[in-house]
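Researcher: We're teaching a course module on how sequence relates to structure. For the next exercise, students receive a sequence and then see the predicted structure as tokens, so they can try to spot secondary structure elements on their own. Here is the exercise chain.
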Amino acid sequence: MPKRIILSMLIITILMAVGYSRFASELDINGNAEIVGEWNVLITDVEVESVPTGCDAGTPTFTNTTLSFDAKLNKPGDEITYKVTVANKGTIDATLNNVIFTEGEGSDAINYTTTNLSNDLAANEETSFFIIVTYEDVDIPPTDTTKSLTGMIEYVQK
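Model: And here is the predicted structure for the students to work with:
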């Protein structure tokens, strides 16, 4: 009788395995992802906004990511203003992440300031900011008559 029980259990186990395999299904999942957004934030224009008499703003030059200018100031109180246009020609909204402007060695009489930096730059929009170069009034006329500026404006995906 124990052989019958063992044989019966074995047959039941085989039937269960066959039944399970009959109702089990294998599912195949295939996927594909593609990034179709375009990142394209760049400088599109630089204009000289104001130049006092006797000063020279030079001819500013720019590429998509760089800007250069050469301001020549005449006397204390002189101020040259450059208007820089930045455009988001991509399809991804951008936000201002970092702004670093560093004045180099040179005259304490020359100062640089920036104004109107926009925090958000939506896709297909543009914004402008200003760089102002000022000849400050100082007690003693400067012996060093130059001062450089280097800077970085970093936009990231919003």
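Model: If you want an answer key for the exercise: Strands lie at 41-50, 61-62, 67-68, 79-88, 94-106, 110-115, 120-121, 125-135, 147-157. The first helix runs from residue 2 to 23.
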